[in-house]
Specification:
By secondary structure, the protein is α+β, with helices and mostly antiparallel strands. The chain has a 6-stranded antiparallel sheet with strand order 4-13-12-7-6-5. A hairpin with a 2-residue loop joins strand 8 and strand 9.
Length: about 180
């Protein structure tokens, strides 16, 4: 589905299409670069946003990347978290996102890798993003539970379960959350 992001109701249409048909690839185009509108349509569910002149090439590239997933029977949803340039060169916690479709998440960078985990400690609900991070280990600020920032694995209690981990990718200058 290709939408004109500047048309009235485009954001609501993208959101309703995404909710009703999660398997559909939604692309949106803009006549002029409007960062606010670009981010709104991404957050509403667009898998791709491009300028009007580049939409064909960008859509062809995206569909080429989706083929292996379709063959494997796995459809992943995408949510734009932030611009990669905003966090370039930073290590440890690079972003806490409150309003993702999977709930609050925290994104961490260790040398050569991005990791994303749920941002709520399963022990008593403290925000892990407010805790200390050393290497790929985050420590809950409330009671000291520790989790691996790339896998969500519980390394030390009092929490007795892991936190959910999510795949994140950097594409076209954006960091995306992927989930099924």
């Amino acid at each position: 589905m290709v939408l004109d992001a500047e048309s009235p109701g485009a954001i609501e249409l993208a959101r309703s299409l995404r909710d009703a048909h999660p398997e559909v690839v939604i692309a949106a185009h803009l006549a002029s670069p409007d960062r606010r509108l670009w981010e709104q349509i991404e957050r509403a569910g667009a898998d791709l946003v491009a300028s009007r002149g580049a939409i064909g090439r960008a859509l062809r590239d995206l569909l080429g990347k989706l083929d292996p997933r379709a063959e494997a029977g796995v459809t992943k949803r995408r949510f734009a978290l932030f611009d990669a340039a905003e966090v370039a060169g930073r290590l440890a916690l690079i972003a806490a996102v409150e309003d993702s479709p999977v709930g609050p998440v925290a994104v961490y960078r260790t040398p050569g890798r991005l990791g994303c985990i749920g941002d709520v400690c399963p022990h008593q609900g403290a925000r892990l993003s407010q805790g200390g991070c050393e290497g790929n280990v985050v420590t809950c600020p409330a009671h000291g539970s520790q989790f691996d920032t790339t896998t969500g694995e519980r390394l030390r209690g009092p929490a007795d379960v892991a936190v959910k981990s999510y795949q994140v990718v950097e594409e076209a200058g954006r960091v995306w959350l992927l989930w099924t």
